[in-house]
Write a structure and sequence with these properties.
heterodimer; A: 130 residues; mainly alpha; two-stranded antiparallel ribbon; 3 helices; 4 strands; 6% strand; B: 326 residues; alpha+beta; Four Helix Bundle (Hemerythrin (Met), subunit A); 2 domains; 6 strands; elongated
């Protein structure tokens, strides 16, 4: 079946593999390295990464970014999205890209709001005292 | 020849009648739509977990302290190593799946079968590991005390500067009360198994050992659980209601009940996906062995089940991050 053509470049063309099988192993090595870095960071917990940035610790931002990188390579290379037509790519990716950040933002914001209310807002909501 | 193959596909309307929207096979497209909706389901669960966590941001259990077991290494503190290994096993089984799909494109029956078998083994090992994780989580290790307002108090040895399990310091008393089983009563009634160590035994042990104090759910600004002074500990323990060992859906020794609820629900739902993935893989594997796809002329089914399998791997990457790392 000659119709199964694979794009063999990853990292925007910096790394080009000779065959699809080689690319699979290459991506596995990359994913393993990222996972190893994640676990190492989680065990060492460098103090410099414990500072807060936009409501989250820097280390957690790093975990989330590395997870998204891993998700990208799993979908693009293992699930062959890289070889699909642009319209199909968008059909799959855009709903997730729009809905998940929306849900995430709205519920996490609400969660921390409720935390604040429970922490020091309770007296204001106790109408007996007025 | 051309005409006969055309009529054959036209009759086969279940498979889309040979239509290829977006240059993808009909079944593959449907698998993608299923994956998109399932991804939204999982993100709903994970975001709900995030909501509860942000709501209790100053008292959430610390994952490193909960998941620190490794098979055959008893008493060794190995935070996350086993989950990392499980992640690697699942990613590796994803790789063997892509290799099976790739062999399918070359119509290489024996290699498809070989890689499918490896994938099934990887999936089974993963499900087994998850069952082991659940066993440790449910059994618990240190035990704790619940007080009247629902807070969980864990015990801490000041001298050794580490947590102390309740069975190490509790003073055993003779017990008159035994679990009521359904074979001894007037009618077939029974009750939940009584805890092995009673509240009064723990309290007695606490009174007689001045090196023990209490750790509360609240975190300090370094993200560690706050350890109370002995006097504050005695004060808190005066309203103790029960001993908690291990975890269930109502209460757990690690802290907030929601933590265990989400753990059971999300990893359980994911584990169910892996389990059904293994079953589907076995079905496809048998079909490969029987030569069904060789006769059909293409291994598209392997590709479709492969998509599902990668998706399961993808979800685990997120569960791993948000449950164990963050």
């Amino acid at each position: 079946m000659a119709k199964h053509e694979h794009k063999l470049e990853i990292f925007r063309g910096y790394l080009k593999f000779k065959s699809n099988v080689q690319k699979i192993w290459g991506v596995l090595i990359f994913l393993s390295i990222v996972t190893a870095i994640e676990v190492a960071l989680g065990i060492i917990k460098p103090p410099i990464l414990m500072n807060y940035f936009l409501g989250l610790k820097l280390i957690n931002w790093m975990f989330i970014i590395m997870t998204i990188i891993k998700a990208y390579y799993i979908t693009w290379d293992f699930m062959h999205v890289r070889d699909e037509k642009p319209f199909l790519k968008n059909t799959i990716i855009l709903p997730l890209l729009i809905l998940i950040p929306f849900l995430l933002f709205i519920l996490l914001w609400e969660g921390s709001y409720i935390f604040d209310v429970m922490l020091d807002g309770l007296k204001e909501w106790d109408f007996d005292i007025y | 020849m051309q005409a006969s193959s055309l009529t054959k596909t036209e009759n086969n309307s279940w498979g889309g009648g040979g239509a290829k929207p977006l240059d993808a096979a009909y079944g593959k497209l449907m698998m993608w739509f299923f994956i998109v909706s399932d991804a939204l389901t999982f993100s709903g669960f994970l975001v709900a977990y995030g909501f509860s966590r942000f709501k209790n941001i100053d008292s959430w259990p610390i994952a490193d302290e909960v998941f620190h077991h490794f098979p055959f290494l008893h008493g060794v503190d190995a935070p996350m190593y086993y989950v990392a290994l499980m992640t690697f096993i699942l990613i590796f089984s994803s790789v063997t799946m892509v290799l099976a799909v790739d062999a399918g494109h070359n119509n290489d029956k024996s290699r498809v079968a070989f890689y499918m078998l490896l994938t099934i083994i990887g999936g089974a090992v993963f499900v087994g590991s998850q069952a082991w994780e659940w066993k440790n989580f449910i059994k618990g290790e240190y035990g704790a005390i619940e007080i009247q307002n629902g807070e969980i108090l864990q015990f801490y040895d000041i001298k050794k500067d580490k947590r102390i399990p309740i069975d190490e310091f509790a003073i055993l008393q003779s017990q008159e009360r035994i679990t009521h089983d359904d074979n001894v009563g007037v009618w077939y009634q029974s009750e939940y198994k009584l805890p092995e160590i009673t509240l009064s035994e723990v309290m007695e042990g606490f009174k007689n050992n001045s090196a023990i104090t209490v750790r509360v759910e609240q975190l300090n600004d370094k993200g560690q659980k706050i350890i109370l002074s002995r006097e504050d500990a005695e004060d808190k323990l005066s309203s103790a209601t029960r001993v908690v060992k291990g975890a269930n859906l109502i209460r757990n020794e690690y802290g907030n009940p929601l933590f265990a609820d989400f753990f059971f629900f999300i990893t359980g739902f994911h584990g169910f996906h892996v389990f059904s993935g293994v079953i589907i893989n076995i079905i496809i594997f048998i079909n490969v062995l029987l030569g069904t796809y060789e006769r059909r002329g293409h291994y598209d089914m392997v590709e479709k089940v492969g998509l599902y399998w990668h998706f399961v791997d993808l979800v685990w990457v997120f569960v791993f991050t948000f449950f164990y790392l963050v």
